Amino acid sequence: xxxxxxxxxxxxxxxxxxxxxxxxxxxxxxxxxxxxxxxxxxxxxxxxxxxxxxxxxxxxxxxxxxxxxxxxxxxxxxxxxxxxxxxxxxxxxxxxxxxxxxxxxxxxxxxxxxxxxxxxxxxxxxxxxxxxxxxxxxxxxxxxxxxxxxxxxxxxxxxxxxxxxxxxxxxxxxxxxxxxxxxxxxxxxxxxxxxxxxxxxxxxxxxxxxxxxxxxxxxxxxxxxxxxxxxxxxxxxxxxxxxxxxxxxxxxxxxxxxxxxxxxxxxxxxxxxxxxxxxxxxxxxxxxxxxxxxxxxxxxxxxxxxxxxxxxxxxxxxxxxxxxxxxxxxxxxxxxxxxxxxxxxxxxxxxxxxxxxxxxxxxxxxxxxx
Length: 370
What we know:
Blueprint: E1 2-7, H1 14-24, E2 33-38, H2 43-50, E3 55-57, H3 66-83, E4 87-91, H4 93-105, E5 109-114, H5 123-128, E6 135-138, H6 141-144, E7 156-158, H7 171-180, E8 188-193, H8 202-210, E9 218-223, H9 231-244, E10 251-255, H10 260-266, E11 269-272, H11 282-289, E12 294-297, H12 302-305, E13 311-314, H13 319-331, H14 333-351, H15 353-364
Parallel strand pairs: 1-2, 1-4, 2-3, 4-5, 5-6, 6-7, 8-9, 8-11, 9-10, 11-12, 12-13
């Protein structure tokens, strides 16, 4: 079965990590030949190419430049005519809005993968809703409940995304990472690794830790760099917040990273206090797989991922509650270890590649979920 995954490619976040993982783990479904069509050259295209899969450059489509959209659609039309694809998957509403009409016209099975919470209000969602897919896949039950706002009446299935089992912990490498970021060996490292999106709650992490100046022995690592217009300004706000909260000496801004698994193995807990619902939270699952307790907000897909056995859910926007949880976990190593020990099993339950990858392609082919 030849499957064409369609995406934008200009950012690199959870969706893009999932695509790279699908490319890397294609040996789990030898009957599937996955290929990838992207509009923008960037880290996603480079990482996919490094995995040895076909990556097709469809051109920089932008709706404010209609001729560029027409050109990208023509490239896809030629690719579908020559490729013999059984299924095309549009990952999120933007590629669906751009490419779904072409896929439909070519007579190829059209699947839309909902990676984000849908409201039906943004223009790109309204445009995507003009072309009805054969199937919608959603990354969580929370996301699936929002699908009818854009695709009413379309069959929808929840499809977990694969998360690889991390490499075994290497104390020497963890120590090297800490030295690289000038972190005392005995400090508890609180890690937040996410896109520079206000909804990820980095500002609340800083505000909460700003109340813990009396607590010794912790360092915050903030991983994530500018990828979109406005990201640099937000990063400057976070630098300013660190200074304002008196954390300049206890926060490390790591920038955009391509070694997050290595950071996870060197950290002690993951904090991502979302201020708006997360559609799923692949970063949360990756942290659980690495054996880290996770602190996140009790909203959206994050509330599906984190259980009391492996982490702590806090009310969204409640900085005092977040500070209380962080104070407890920083001081209580046995509790961190108890929660962290349950993480890998929870990650496998949600995102075991041996289960999720074959199930995904059964759904794409129109077969039963199990």
